[in-house]
Specification:
Shape of chain A: globular
Strand order of the largest sheet of chain A: 7-6-8-5-9
GO molecular function (chain C): amine transmembrane transporter activity; carnitine transmembrane transporter activity
Largest sheet of chain A: 5 strands, mixed
CATH class of the largest domain in chain A: Alpha Beta
CATH architecture of the largest domain in chain C: Orthogonal Bundle
CATH class of the largest domain in chain C: Mainly Alpha
Mean pLDDT of chain A: 85
Number of domains of chain C: 2
Protein name (chain C): Glycine betaine transport system permease protein OpuAB
Oligomer: heterotrimer
Order of helices and strands of chain A: HEHEHEHEEHHEHEHEHEEHHHHH
Number of helices of chain A: 14
Radius of gyration of chain C: 27 Å
Strand content of chain A: 15-25%
Keywords (chain C): Cell membrane, Membrane, Transmembrane, Transmembrane helix, Transport
Main location (chain C): membrane
Bound molecules: adenosine-5'-triphosphate, magnesium ion
Largest sheet of chain C: none
Structural class of chain A: alpha/beta
Mean pLDDT of chain C: 86
CATH topology of the largest domain in chain A: D-Maltodextrin-Binding Protein, domain 2
CATH superfamily of the largest domain in chain A: Periplasmic binding protein-like II
Membrane topology (chain C): Multi-pass membrane protein
Largest interface: A-C, 56 and 61 residues
Distance between the termini of chain C: 17 Å
Number of helices of chain C: 29
Chains: A alpha/beta, B alpha/beta, C mainly alpha
Number of domains of chain A: 2
Chain lengths: 313, 339, 657
């Protein structure tokens, strides 16, 4: 493994017309790692590119919400995946306090909403429309919910407003909050065996797409202000009466001081942009093909030279 | 056997157990009894004891359980800080010793065998015995050799690597004895050292102690419940009750002239004929004829002679010279127990 | 015996009367509530009366942190700690830091550790060590295991040394002991999430914070065991030490500490176990290693792989525990005068030889230095299939469906709703009555104060839900665990087997249980309770077995001679005598349940754990503490009460040593 890294570095050095850049600091660039695979692989890919340029890189595992505070303080240098829906709030809060900069969007878009695995469609053929979902609410009933359907929302602290939406749209669903992402997967995994219909919170890009093909429920389309102004959306008296934005951003963020300390690396970071299929592939390499993230990153870099070589020029 | 200045000299020693013993001792009337003190919430472990032990002497302390024997000995070795009085060891007030001096004293001069052995549970027999040597900083090999020597002496060879918990009570006690033997102290405190031994080994051990004492002129304070043992070993016997020493004298005197009612009761059951020696019975002004008896002979050993003889007075000789005479009737009285 | 019962019969009479009175008031209040006559202010403390403890605490923390300069100090310490951690990190998994020698090839570590194992405990130990390290390497977890170890090798010894020193200090100074004891009680009942946040704030995200949190978490039992052990050293042994001319230091080093070895060993064992438990949990604050990998695996629904990590953790825990024990028991060897140097250090030389040999081999043979994922023998996928197969068995499904439909819907949920419907004051009175009846007046007053504080914290409903999970889980654990333990306690063989299972279940990282629990029961209360149950049953079983097996044999013989049947013997003799010990187990079960209920937040709960978990993502130190203290106060109430009962009972039965 070590050997291949050095070979890679040599390759990068050969490919780089390094001339124009001022020298980067030799202090390590600290890249945060979270607990989902695409982010880990992507961080490793970027890390290896930066290492190839002669930078020192170090990875730290951090909480995905708390990381923005760390970036702000410079404890961590950058963040590769800022999801609009999940981390938008933390990111904006950190921006307000200062110390963190927006380094542009990825090509990829994100979406988070009610989701169901494909087999659910057999029990409720009208899907993905939300009205159809509501009509077959009974299909989703469990021992605890009586005749109402059960929707498994993300953890409370993700603030997905599932309950508000059920009320606003008058749906026959009971909203239960999972305690963690792992709990969501466990629920889907348990339903998989006898193809029990379930509807849960999910997002893309995500490894789950590869494991369990599925679709998002189509709610009334997102209109700006749906979460602030009751009059927006189908129900004039309620907030959250539309689906989430179907094309949320995915940003890169960095510590304010990065541009000055590692100008070359910063320039590359600005260029970097991943697409949805690329992210899904990275996740798949780890989640389905059982590679270690570092190996997956190496492999990806080797297979996609044309993609990333462009960023480094 | 005994010579010059006393090795241990205790004067009006008090040891009270309780919450504020010093203050209590200052405030109390000296003639208060054990029970009165107890009523105030204090236990008089040692109560106004004055006693001296000379060099080369073997002092045996006896008394009922809880009478303060162990406590007194602990005061001598300053394992207890005494509440009142003074204790001098070789002319030095031990209460005034600094910690360093005290450690030196214990390392070089004192040894103690504990009533319940006090073995270090995590050390093997060998390491237990070598412990005092180790504390002195002796070299590893030297202390191992010395320890093996004394272990052999107490008959535990082959069990050097056992742990205390793997030994019987008697074997454990012998480890304790070996440990105190290892440093050959000048002053020896033995708190019921043979209580757990079988009669055979007990006798061997007694002989060993006697031998050492005579050979090396050790000073020994010995606690026992066994009168026979006391008689074999003691130069003097101290009898304690409720923390106080009732009487401290030679065995003969104690049985013949008990100082208190308590001592009389304590010694009542004892066969005096075995205790009392001819020398003790010498009566001034009396002189006898014929073959003298040995001064060190006990009345019991003279039984046959006393019964068969017809003399009124029998001469007593020490080292071949006649030193006086005893009355046959008195001796016979002791023999048959009518006093 | 007769007179003790007479005495104890009169005292609790008045106590139980008072207790019934309190219960009566509570019932009246609850009835009023149901009838709708109870003013709202008596049902729940109005928001306006809830003091903003979180803000006060925040202000206090900020004061300590910034104004008193604690922050500067801790950040300075962080630097120091970082250096040490970087060194171990370099050696063990090759982090690019001084001394830049690592990573040491896995074969070199495994081989030299196996030699060490042999030196400490013979072939068996060597085999255990070898199996552990080879397993770790072969399933492809070497690097992450070493990431964990690099922190553990710093945290565990630090906790040991600090715990030992504080323990000695507490033993020397009763005043210090008195101040330390309550702090330790709180620390021991504080949920681990409460350790994490301050660690991050003061010691920076990552291994440093992980090491600090781990160390602090592991210290309290070490202190307690040290003090306990030292106090138990027999005075005559100490006197023997004095008479051997020990200096103060020699006395401590050669007499006190070795004599207290048994207790200190228990402390060491606890330190290692807690460190390993914590080192996984610190994944939440950016500690890389087994814990982080475990979370990542769970996040991508890889049951088999997370199970494998669990096995690694158990193996490491067992190995480290056994080795540390063997090391303390190890007796020095005696060599004849003049034994050559190499002979005296043969083991060291062997270990060194193995180390160097494999370091060299690793230069040429890749697998000897590192086993990548592709070569690894992980059976994660197969395990996944196995687990899914199991969950799909018809009768398993039938049972879980029944449990969900009946136990959950008919019993648990109504019970929870009932608990929530009880007015706050009535609830507090009920707890107070319980403490009074079981413990005594002091315990009752404590319970009253503690639960009132919980009410004042403003987290009442969540606290009640937490308590509900704990009570339900412990009750079910008793129903299941006690019969199993009683049956097993009949024979030595089964006792040993069951205890082994208990040990394993306990060292297995708690997280691993969560996913199967969800897959079995969905995200329901019963899944939460199921995962707590596993943990709560361990101490119950352990102490029941211990209690039953330590009933004095002569008592049992006496019962047998009176012609008692097996059942009579159990009910009339063994159980009553074992009860005090079982109560200690019961108490621990409650403590474990409080620990696990917080973790169960990952399933999805509405209790304190969920809120605590949320605070981790932020910097809300005040709120984090208030929540932690709520858990701690409730746990302490039970702890104090039950332990008091147990010791009273023991004294009454004359079982106290
Ligand atoms: N550390 C202590 N604290 C309080 N009281 C003590 C202490 N040590 C001894 N005593 C009390 O002092 C008295 C004398 O005890 P000591 O051990 O000296 O008796 P003893 O004569 O050696 O008895 P035994 O023959 O049973 O060994 C006893 O009443 C005992 O309870
Ligand atoms: Mg005694």
């Amino acid at each position: 493994m070590k050997r291949s890294t050095t070979a890679l570095a040599a390759g990068i050095l050969a490919a780089l017309p390094m001339a124009g850049f001022a020298a980067d600091s030799s202090d390590p660039i600290v890249i945060p790692i979270h607990n989902w695979s695409s982010q880990i692989v992507m961080s490793n890919v970027v890390g290896q590119i930066l290492e190839g340029m002669g930078n020192n890189v170090e990875y730290v595992t951090t909480d995905s919400q708390a990381v923005y505070e760390s970036v702000r303080l410079g404890d961590v240098t950058l963040e590769m995946e800022v999801w609009e829906g999940a981390f938008g709030a933390s990111f904006r809060a950190a921006m307000e306090k200062g110390g963190i900069v927006d380094v542009g969007d990825h090509n990829a878009v994100t979406r988070e909403d009610w989701w169901y695995p494909m087999w659910t469609k057999d029990a409720c053929p009208g899907l993905p429309s939300w009205e159809a979902l509501n009509d077959c609410a009974a299909v989703f009933a469990t021992a605890e919910t009586g005749d109402k359907g059960r929707y498994l929302d993300g953890p409370v602290d993700w603030l997905k407003h599932g309950k508000e939406r059920v009320d606003a749209l008058g749906m026959d669903f009971v909203v239960i909050n999972a305690g963690s992402a792992a709990a969501l997967w466990a629920e889907i995994g348990a339903a998989e065996a006898d193809k029990k219909p379930v509807v849960v919170f999910n997002w893309t890009p995500n490894f789950a797409e590869a494991v369990w093909p599925g679709e998002f429920v189509e709610f009334p389309e997102w209109v700006d202000g749906c979460d602030k102004d009751p009059s927006v959306g189908p129900n004039p008296d309620a907030l959250y009466d539309c689906g989430n934005p179907a094309k949320g951003y995915m940003k890169k963020a960095a510590w304010e001081g990065m541009e000055e300390k590692w100008p070359a690396a910063y320039a590359v970071l600005e260029q970097i942009s991943f697409t949805n299929p690329q992210i899904a592939e990275m996740a798949k390499m780890v989640d389905i093909d059982e590679m270690e993230p570092e190996e997956a990153a190496e492999e990806w870099l080797a297979a996609n030279k044309d993609v990333w070589m462009g960023w480094t020029q | 056997m005994t010579t010059d200045a006393p090795v241990i000299s205790a004067k009006n020693v008090w040891k009270l157990f309780g919450s504020a013993p010093e203050a209590y001792l200052k405030g109390m009337k000296p003639e208060m009894s054990f029970d009165e003190i107890r009523a105030d919430g204090y236990i008089a472990g040692v109560k106004d004891v004055s006693i001296e032990v000379s060099r080369g002497e073997m002092l045996v302390i006896m008394g009922l359980s809880g009478s303060g024997k162990s406590t007194l000995v602990r005061c001598f070795s300053r394992l207890h800080e005494i509440t009142g009085g003074t204790i001098e060891v070789e002319g030095q007030d031990i209460m005034s010793l600094s910690e360093k001096e005290l450690i030196e004293l214990r390392r070089n001069k004192m040894g103690m065998v504990f009533q319940s052995f006090g073995l270090l549970p995590h050390r093997t027999v060998l390491d237990n015995v070598a412990f005092p040597l180790e504390m002195r900083g002796q070299d590893k090999h030297a202390r191992r050799e010395r320890a093996l020597e004394v272990i052999k002496l107490v008959g535990l060879e082959g069990r050097e690597d056992y742990f205390p918990r793997e030994l019987s009570g008697g074997q454990q006690q012998r480890v304790g004895i070996a440990r105190s033997l290892a440093i050959e102290p000048d002053i020896w405190f033995l708190d019921e050292p043979f209580s757990a031994l079988d009669p055979l080994i007990r006798r061997e051990m007694q002989d060993e102690f006697l031998r050492l004492q005579q050979l090396l002129n050790k000073t020994i304070v010995f606690i026992t419940h066994d009168f026979d043992e006391a008689l074999r070993l003691a130069d003097r016997i101290a009898i304690m009750k409720d923390g106080a020493v009732e009487q401290c004298d030679t065995p003969d005197q104690i049985v013949l002239h008990p100082a208190t009612e308590y001592v009389r009761k304590f010694t009542e059951e004892i066969d005096k004929a075995r205790v009392v020696h001819a020398s003790t019975l010498l009566e001034p002004g009396l002189s006898g004829e014929g073959d003298p008896v040995d001064a060190a002979a006990s009345v019991q050993s003279l039984a046959k002679l006393l019964i068969q003889d017809t003399r009124v007075a029998i001469p007593v000789a020490k080292d071949g010279t006649v030193i006086g005479a005893i009355s046959r009737e008195t001796a016979l009285g002791i023999l048959v127990g009518t006093d | 015996m007769a007179d003790t019962t007479a005495i104890s019969a009169t005292a609790p009479m008045s106590r139980s009367k008072l207790a019934s009175l309190l219960v009566g008031v509570a019932i009246v209040l609850t009835a009023l509530q149901y009838l709708g006559f109870l003013p709202a202010a008596l049902h729940r403390l109005p928001e306006a009366f809830v003091p903003d403890f979180a803000r006060y605490l925040d202000a206090f923390f900020n004061f300590v942190k910034d104004d008193l300069g604690l922050f500067t100090l801790t950040r300075w310490l962080t630097g120091l700690l970082q250096t040490v951690l970087d060194t171990t990190a370099n050696l063990l998994f090759g982090k690019r830091r001084w001394p830049n020698l690592g990573p040491i090839p896995w074969t070199a570590i495994a081989a030299s550790m196996a030699v060490l194992g042999y030196y400490l405990g013979g072939w068996k130990m060597a085999a255990l060590v070898a199996v552990t390290f080879c397993w770790t390497a072969l399933v492809g977890q070497w690097k992450i295991a070493m990431e964990t170890m690099s922190v553990l090798v710093v945290a565990a010894p630090t906790a040991f040394i600090i715990g030992l020193s504080l323990g000695i200090a507490a033993w020397k100074s009763p005043a210090f002991d008195r101040t330390l004891k309550p702090i330790l009680s709180v620390l021991q009942t504080l949920p681990f999430f409460t350790y994490l946040l301050p660690a991050v704030i003061f010691f920076k995200v990552g291994p440093t914070a992980g090491a600090v949190a781990t160390t602090i978490y592991a210290i309290p039992p070490m202190i307690l065991m040290t003090t306990l052990g030292l106090q138990k050293v027999s005075p005559e042994v100490v006197e023997a030490g004095h008479m051997s001319g020990c200096t103060k230091f020699q006395l401590l080093r050669h007499v006190y500490l070795p004599s207290a070895r048994t207790e200190i060993l228990v402390g060491v064992n606890q330190v290692i176990m807690l460190c390993l438990a914590m080192v996984v949990l610190t994944a939440f604050i950016g500690m890389p290693g087994l814990g982080a990998k475990l979370l990542a695996m769970m996040g991508s629904f890889k049951l088999g792989r997370s199970f494998e990590i669990g096995v690694t953790i158990v193996l490491l825990a067992v190995t480290l525990d056994r080795m540390s024990k063997a090391w303390v028991v190890k007796q020095p060897e005696h060599f004849e005068r003049g034994t050559p140097w190499w002979k005296r250090h043969i083991m060291f030389l062997l270990a060194l030889g193995a180390f160097v040999f494999f370091c060299i081999v690793a230069q040429f043979v890749d697998v000897a230095s590192e086993i990548g994922r592709k070569q690894s023998l992980s059976v994660g996928k197969e395990l996944d299939v196995g687990i899914k197969w199991f969950l799909n068995i018809e009768w398993v499904k039938a049972i879980t469906y029944f449990l969900r439909a009946f136990v959950n819907v008919q019993i648990l949920i109504p019970f929870r709703n009932f608990l929530l419907s009880i007015p706050t004051p009535a609830f507090i009175l009920l707890i107070t009555a319980f403490a009074l009846w079981l413990g005594g007046r002091r315990q009752a007053v404590t319970a009253l104060i503690f639960f009132s504080l919980v009410a004042l914290s403003g987290w009442w409903d969540r606290s009640v839900i937490t308590l509900y999970s704990v009570i339900s889980a412990v009750s079910i654990a008793m129903l299941l665990g006690l019969p199993i333990a009683i049956v097993a306690a009949r024979t030595e063989k089964w006792s040993q087997r069951l205890l082994l299972v208990c040990d394993t279940a306990q060292t297995f990282p708690s997280f691993v249980y969560l996913i199967p629990a969800i897959m079995l029961f969905g995200i329901t209360d019963i899944a939460v309770i199921f995962s707590i149950l596993i943990f709560a049953m361990v101490p119950l079983i352990r102490y029941t077995i211990e209690g039953l097996r330590t009933v004095p044999p002569e008592v049992i013989e006496a019962a047998e001679m009176s012609g008692a049947t097996r059942m009579q013997k159990l009910v009339n003799v063994e159980l009553p005598l074992a009860l005090p010990t079982m109560a200690v187990g019961f108490n621990q079960a409650i403590m474990f349940a409080f620990f696990m209920v917080i973790i169960a937040a990952f399933i999805g709960t509405q209790d304190l754990g969920q809120e605590l978990q949320r605070t981790l993502a932020g910097t809300d130190l005040g709120k984090n503490f208030v929540l932690g203290i709520c858990v701690s106060l409730m746990a302490l109430t039970f702890d104090l009460t039950i332990l008091k009962w147990s010791s009273d009972r023991k004294r009454m039965l004359g079982l106290e040593e």
